[in-house]
Write a structure and sequence with these properties.
alpha/beta; 8 helices; Rossmann fold; binds thymidine-5'-phosphate; 5-stranded parallel beta sheet
Length: 225
Amino acid sequence: MSGPPTSADTGRGRFITLEGGEGTGKSTQQGRLAAWLRDQGLTVVETREPGGSPGAEQIRDLLVTGEAGRWDAMTETLLHFAARRDHFVRTIQPALAAGTWVVSDRFADSTLAYQGFGHGLGRAPVEALYRLVLDDFTPDLTLILDLPAQAGLDRARQRIGDSGAAEDRYESMDESFHERLYEGFRDIARREPGRCRLIDASGSEDAVAAAIRNAVADRFQDLSP
Ligand code: TMP
């Protein structure tokens, strides 16, 4: 087993995060991973960011709707961390303390990728806010779904076209923003190989689900793929 000491080593529930750009299939894969973990006899909570608690879901509305430029980068980052603090205190921490596994569609790596790299805010303010809000808490495992930005955007914009979704603020940002955050996620994976696994998201849904199960079984060796 590799990686830093985490909640996994203290007999509490474990915290798995799914990360990646637009249209990488995170939400579908979250459902499949949670179902598989339940088949292994575990109790699992599926959650998401921004959101995952009543207060954080209200903040989500401010972030994912409206004009692309409605917030400056720092304000947007503070809103994401405000939502995250509420999500952490009200949902994640109590679940882990009760021995429940938590699978989150996005967490703090999204802030580094989208606001730090995408908006160009940089690493330092995001890391400083992280320490203030979460101290030394980290996911036990982060699965980064890797798909070139344009391919993911095409998928995401197709989905919005089909459903007329109102949550399109980030999808409407320009292509270079999405290229930067794609590189940001790859940089995160390179810097933290103990916590993060890069998952090729270009294959079929089944192939990606299998790669995810392998990564999870490799990290938590009491599970078999
Ligand atoms: P979703 O579409 O995956 O539900 O996420 C909502 C949007 O919020 C998505 O476009 C990415 C963005 N986001 C950030 O920009 N920073 C963050 O910290 C998080 C959690 C999400």
